[in-house]
């Protein structure tokens, strides 16, 4: 059966790293067909909307989506697309690779980030006279759902769960989040630790080896996973998956990198590792493992893009990954 993959490169280096990842998918050839769709700043300028309805339809209809990044319009693109695929969990693995100069080479953890609410629920108001407000939404159902997903994800991997929160200050919202996590844990007989998220930022930096799977609310996961990118050698290495109901959308954690866009030197590893997550999601585990080991081999032996101290182009790195498959 041919599976249909929506490909949405977006803006900036999305236009460079996503085609590189598609080349790798074509090389492992699990029988995918690809449909390209537009989103982001460029299509907003050309067609008046950063997310044409046709793109949403393509993503909804596809078996999975590979997304790059959008620039200024990122929030108008990625939040509706995550919704279009029914995603409630954002899975962000952060691990250090041999051969890459990492601040914390022992880092090997996975963020399981709530993907639908918190401060990103979109309830912001300008009350005038210099007063603005934001409503933070935390529901019991979404908190239970991410906890169930997180405990199942950790159990499959034999990993420990740590829950990041700030319930000492946000007593009602994060209080509810923690309460829901605790209820799910007792139902499942699962165990977990908790950390206050500000303290966790320090502990992650000093000793990331104490964590495996980190379950957290939306904003906490966004910030802590970028911190983890710094531990492992940069944003060019972090893949992510927006998963949930059935369909999934996979994207590098990084943005459009305007400082290097157009030069052909963006690190395609994050996008290629996102493609590997897409393969796993569609149960092509053998192909996913081949892609991961090929990326690891290239990270260890080169060629490397400038962010990792090399001088190779995006295409050269993708080509080297394909040679290693
Ligand atoms: P960014 O991730 O685009 O760049 C941060 C730094 O990391 C830059 O120095 C960049 O050169 C470097 N970098 C990122 N990815 C890289 C790669 N693959 N290879 C080599 N170096 C890489 O984040 P920034 O600068 O905060 O945002 C730039 C634009 O991207 C903004 O317009 C923002 O809205 C958008 N953005 C979009 C996202 C999305 O669509 N999901 C996510 C994050 C940012
Ligand atoms: Mg982010």
TrEMBL record:
- Record-linked SUPFAM superfamilies: Isocitrate/Isopropylmalate dehydrogenase-like
GO terms (molecular function) for this protein are: 3-isopropylmalate dehydrogenase activity; isocitrate dehydrogenase (NAD+) activity
Which residue intervals define the domain Isopropylmalate dehydrogenase-like in the entry?
A: 4-321
Enzyme class, broadest EC rank = oxidoreductase
Enzyme Commission code: 1.1.1.85
- Give a GO biological-process term: isocitrate metabolic process
Q: Name one Pfam family in it.
A: Iso_dh
Tell me if Cytoplasm is a UniProt keyword of this record: no
Q: Write down the superkingdom of origin.
A: Archaea
- Kindly state which keywords UniProt assigns to this record, in alphabetical order: Oxidoreductase
**Keyword Cytoplasm part of the UniProt annotation:** no
Q: Which family does it belong to?
A: Belongs to the isocitrate and isopropylmalate dehydrogenases family.
The entry's protein name is 3-isopropylmalate/3-methylmalate dehydrogenase
Q: Which organism is it from?
A: Halolamina pelagica
């Amino acid at each position: 059966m041919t599976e249909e993959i929506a490909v949405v490169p977006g803006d900036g280096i999305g236009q460079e790293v996503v085609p590189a990842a598609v080349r790798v998918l074509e090389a492992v050839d699990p029988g995918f067909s690809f449909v390209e769709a537009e989103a982001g700043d460029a299509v907003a300028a050309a067609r008046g909307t950063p997310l044409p309805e046709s793109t949403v339809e393509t993503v909804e209809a596809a078996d999975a989506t590979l997304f790059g990044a959008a620039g200024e319009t990122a929030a108008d693109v990625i939040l509706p697309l995550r919704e279009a695929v029914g995603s409630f969990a954002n899975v962000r693995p952060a691990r250090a690779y041999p051969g890459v100069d990492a601040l914390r080479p022992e880092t090997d953890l996975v963020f399981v980030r709530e993907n639908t609410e918190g401060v990103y629920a979109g309830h912001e108001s300008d009350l005038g006279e210099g007063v603005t407000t934001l409503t933070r939404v935390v529901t019991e159902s979404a908190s239970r759902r991410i906890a169930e997903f997180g405990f199942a994800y950790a159990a499959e991997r034999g990993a420990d769960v740590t829950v990041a929160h700030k319930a000492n200050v946000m007593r009602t919202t994060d209080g509810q989040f923690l309460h829901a996590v605790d209820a799910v844990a007792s139902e499942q007989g699962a165990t977990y630790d908790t950390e206050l998220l500000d303290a966790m930022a320090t502990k992650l930096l000093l000793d990331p080896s104490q964590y495996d799977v980190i379950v957290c609310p939306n904003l906490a996961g966004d910030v802590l996973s970028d911190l983890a990118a710094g531990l492992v050698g940069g944003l060019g290495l972090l893949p992510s998956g927006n998963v949930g109901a059935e369909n999934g959308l996979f994207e590098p954690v990084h943005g459009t990198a305007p400082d290097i866009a157009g030069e052909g030197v963006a690190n395609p590893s994050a996008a290629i590792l996102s493609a590997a997550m897409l393969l796993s999601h569609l149960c092509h585990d053998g192909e996913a493992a081949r892609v991961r080991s090929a990326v690891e081999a290239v990270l260890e032996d080169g060629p490397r893009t400038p962010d990792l101290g090399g001088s190779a182009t995006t295409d050269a790195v993708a080509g080297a990954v394909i040679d290693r498959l």
